[in-house]
Specification:
It is built from eight helices and eleven strands. By secondary structure, it is an alpha/beta fold. The two termini are 20 Å apart.
């Protein structure tokens, strides 16, 4: 019996990217006078000259006035030293006060970023749950196939979990590059820029709808197949078959049990990737030009272990414009396609490295979906159909 799931209005909205946050500039050190006469120097010089004058002019009149002159010289020197010490102490107190206030600012900023990061992590893990929670998403009618093409997270799939930059800090412009800065505060500000915006245990997501449309998934066969199953599970759970089609070419049957049960699965009429792509490339532009409606975005996973990736066929439109994403499972980076929207590496310990073009690299722990769990998931989705469904 087929189940026709309604698609109610989405309740859990996508998590929008956090905008960069400006970091207040580091307080600059006070200007240091080079040359010129300060008040302590002038007072000391004038007092000393007056005392010396008394000592020289009245040297023969008796010991009293020369003694007074000597006392004036000594007093002038002590007064000048006192003024200099007071000015230096005032400057030190001012610098220490600025340092304490700026360090307090950095501490409060870290607390604020940590709080917003924790909130973002909670929401992100709700939107992109770990694979073990996908059966609950399928059973929830408000979550099953919730992502529409108009959503910002459409075609975004979780591939793992790790530390990501959520709230980037940007240093404010330098008001006067020629003036010095407190080295302690400079080091603290640099550390805040590097680490304050990082959030651990965040989902690492791969956007299948950006760039050239070709993605390289590099690593041992078992590891890449495991990650590819996680990717397909995310696609099938959160995207409707009306919006996304899934094709696996050259698959090893034991690695994809129950794949043909998925309502998204499209059985290719050919087993060769180039023939399949050539057919799709020749079919999709006329549909797009004639405005014949939305064509499902086609995600093609091709097992190319042991050989180089086949290139995307030449076309007037790119893969992204055609609504096609090709994920190449390969052994080595040199086997990948010439143009790649992203590169995902996974090792035998299921540690991933993610390098989207034009964005910072990420690293973390890959999501694992065993063949048994994948088959159980396909059985859960098998009864669902879009035929006569409402709200599409």
């Amino acid at each position: 019996m087929k189940i026709y799931p309604p698609r109610p209005q989405r309740l859990l909205r996508p998590l929008e990217a956090n905008l960069p946050r400006a970091l207040a500039p580091v307080p600059q050190l006070p200007n240091v006078r080079v040359g010129g006469l300060s008040l302590p120097v002038i007072v000391t010089v004038l007092g000393s000259l007056a005392g010396l004058t008394l000592m020289i002019v009245y040297a023969e009149t008796g010991p009293l006035l020369p003694l007074v002159g000597a006392l004036v010289v000594a007093a002038s020197g002590l007064w000048g030293l006192g003024l200099a010490w007071t000015a230096r102490a005032r400057a030190t107190r001012g610098r220490n006060l600025k340092r304490e206030r700026y360090l307090d600012y950095l501490a409060n900023l870290r607390l604020s970023l940590a709080k917003s990061g924790a909130e973002a992590r909670t929401i992100a893990n709700l939107i992109h749950p770990e694979p073990g929670l996908l059966p609950q998403m399928i059973a929830d009618p408000t979550r099953l196939w919730e992502r529409r093409p108009s959503d910002s997270d459409f075609l975004q799939v979780r591939i793992g979990q790790g530390t990501t930059l959520w709230s980037p800090l940007v240093a404010d412009t330098d008001p006067d590059p020629a003036q010095g800065f407190d080295p302690v505060l400079m080091a603290e500000a640099a550390e805040a820029i590097r680490t304050a915006g990082l959030v651990d245990a965040m989902p690492i997501c791969l956007d299948l709808g950006l760039g050239s449309g070709e993605i390289a998934l590099i690593g041992p066969r078992e590891a890449t197949e495991n990650l590819a199953r996680a990717l397909v599970a995310q696609l099938a759970c959160f995207h409707s078959p009306a919006d996304v089609g899934i094709v696996v070419v050259g698959e090893q049957a034991p690695a994809w049990p129950g794949l043909d049960r998925l309502p998204h699965y499209q059985t290719p009429s050919v087993n060769d990737l180039m023939s399949l792509l050539t057919r799709e490339v020749s079919t999709r532009p006329p549909h797009a030009a004639k405005g014949l409606g939305w064509l499902p975005h086609l995600v093609i996973i091709v097992d190319e272990h042991g050989r180089s990736a086949q290139p995307f066929p030449k076309a007037d439109l790119g893969a992204t414009e055609l609504g096609i994403t090709v994920i190449h499972l390969i052994d080595h980076p040199l086997d990948g396609p010439s143009e790649q929207a992203a590169v995902v590496t996974v090792d035998a310990n299921h540690q991933i490295g993610f390098e989207p073009v034009g964005e910072p690299a990420q690293a973390g722990q890959a999501d694992l979906v065993s063949t048994g769990f994948f088959e159980a998931l396909t059985r859960s989705l098998a009864p669902y159909s879009l035929e006569e469904a409402h709200g599409l």
